[in-house]
Structure formats: structure tokens, C-alpha cells
Amino acid sequence: MGKSWYKVLQSEFKTAYFRKLKDFLISEHKAHTIYPPLCDIYSWSRLTPLDSVKVVILGQDPYHDVNQAHGLAFSVKPPTKPPPSLKNIYKQIQADIPSFSAPSTGDLSPLAARGVLFLNSALTVRAHKANSHAKKGWEQLTTAALRAVAQRADGRGVVFFAWGLPAQKTCKAVGIDETKHLVLKSAHPSPLSAYRGFFGNGHFKRANEWLEEKYGPGEGIDWTALHD
Hints:
Blueprint: H1 3-9, H2 16-31, E1 34-35, H3 43-47, E2 55-59, H4 84-96, H5 109-112, E3 116-120, E4 125-126, H6 138-150, E5 159-163, H7 165-174, E6 182-186, H8 203-215
Parallel strand pairs: 2-3, 2-5, 5-6
Antiparallel strand pairs: 1-4
Helix pairs in contact: 6-7
Organism: Artomyces pyxidatus
Protein name: Uracil-DNA glycosylase
């Protein structure tokens, strides 16, 4: 885990729920294939230090097939092609940011390095079994991480993208001060729901407008950093 996150979350590691989660993960690793690889479980924390967060994009469960999950919500490493939800995210970025052209890669690391925190509620999953590590303790840790963003010492406001009901419930549980932060809610980018309010939500444009209104020109996210 990146140092900035370890510092604010270290008290969580001494709790009963986290010890129970560790025991569960040890037993899972002995019996099954787990994604993402151990070295990538906390890659979000290394790519996006706490004090660099400008935008938070909440996911739920890591991808559970081979060569997909690498620790960032919605992201996959090459040569894996962008999954359907990510393709829909690219479509909406393109609608909001005309200079954006969708890349062939699904690796969101360039955005993570520019202050976009791609955080799943659960940080691991058993291969080919969606939500298999949900409600095992990860949600308490990731909610604590989100609370650390919302209550950051520098007092800086950030944009939370809450796509779908689970993400919206998580934001509510965090207790985000919406006089300081911007919470943007819509349907999830999944093909099952994208046409029910994700497409046309304008979130990427609105996030940049808000960041630049609040902190000045150039303070938005360079979404075109994903170009091939």
C-alpha cells in the first residue's frame, strides 16, 4: 500500500474485521485463483496518492477473468481489450471532451497518475465467481479510504462519480459534505443500464468545470491522457 494511504488507514489493520478478512484471503489463496494478483491489490494507492486525488470513480467488484483485474476499478491491462462498461465510459468521455478519442487499451493508469482514484468496494475476487469476496470486510476498508479523501487535511474538494445504486449508497455511508465536494450520480455504465441515464450524464465535462471554477485553469483532469 502506498505510504500516504497506509498512514491514514493503519488503524483499520488492527481491527477484528480486518484480521478476519486476512484469514479469509489466506484460505482463499490456498484453494483458489484470486484476482487481482497480490502485487496489484493496492495498486490504486500507489498510482494515486491521497493528496493527489481530484476525482473518485467508484466500482464494485474486480473483474474475475484471466488478465483483467489489476487493482483499478474498470481498468484492464493490455493485451486485454476494454470490457463493455469501459467502452461505454469512453463513449461518454468522448461526448463530453471532443478532443478525446477512445484508445484500444483499457489501462486507466495514466488517469490514476493524474488524480483519478479508481476504487472498487471489494478489492479481490475468486476467479470466475463475481462478488465472491463481497461483504467479507473489504467494504469497511474502502469506505474508510473514501472517508479519508472526504476529510483530507488540506480541506480540498474532490468530485465523486457515483454510478449506480451501490456506489450511491457507499457515498451516503461515507457522509460526504456536499457543500465542499461534488457528488455526481447517474446510472451505471454497464450495457444493462447505460441507456437509462449514464449516457448523456455529462459527468466528465462537469467535473472539469467544477475543478477549474474552484481551483483555477488547468486544475481539471486531462482525460485525453488515455490516447494510444
